[in-house]
Write a structure and sequence with these properties.
This protein is an alpha+beta fold. The protein is 25% helix and 47% strand. The protein has helices at 14-22, 113-142, and strands at residues 3-10, 34-43, 46-55, 58-69, 74-81, 84-96, 99-110. The longest helix is centred in the C-terminal third of the chain and has 30 residues, at 113-142.
Length: 154
């Protein structure tokens, strides 16, 4: 089972990064390999999201249960239905002197041995590009600004 954990410091407030990641409907606009995304059910603190991922001839649809807390800026996702045996991911956005410490974790396993072997071979690159896509999206939406604590006073 590929497991990946990544931490990055970005110059945006934790709330802005949280808002960007929880906006699942917008994923196809910027996330590599995301062909479609929609919220099937929305309740306070919980989403059920469906995504279609595709790469060349491979196209898979899956559904996830997403628990989120807008107060402590956490997003926890568990797999419900689709091509995985199991999948969990966690985003945490922590205040940092330079803006926000993004802490991302993902662990998954496909049912198909073929998909699993492809995912394992390209896993590191895929996850780095995915996290990089969120970083690029933040820059596109919020600019390359410093957090208020580091904004020069004129």
């Amino acid at each position: 089972m590929p497991i990946h954990r990544e931490k990055r410091t970005l110059p945006y407030p934790p709330g802005k990064m949280f808002d960007l990641v929880i906006d699942v409907d917008r994923y196809p606009e910027f996330l590599p390999w995301c062909r479609a995304a929609r919220i099937k059910r929305r309740e306070p603190g919980v989403l059920v999201a469906e995504m279609v991922i595709g790469f060349k001839m491979v196209r898979e649809r899956f559904t996830s249960h997403v628990e989120y807390n807008a107060t402590d800026f956490t997003i926890n996702t568990t797999y419900m239905d689709g091509p995985f045996k199991q999948m969990v991911s966690r985003w945490r956005f922590l205040a940092h002197p330079e803006g926000c410490l993004v802490d991302f974790f993902v662990d998954f396993e496909f049912r198909s041995a073929l998909l699993q072997s492809l995912a394992t071979a390209f896993f590191g690159e895929v996850v780095r590009r995915m996290v990089g896509a969120f970083e690029s999206r933040a820059k596109q939406l919020y600019g390359a600004r410093l957090p208020p604590s580091q904004t020069p006073v004129l």
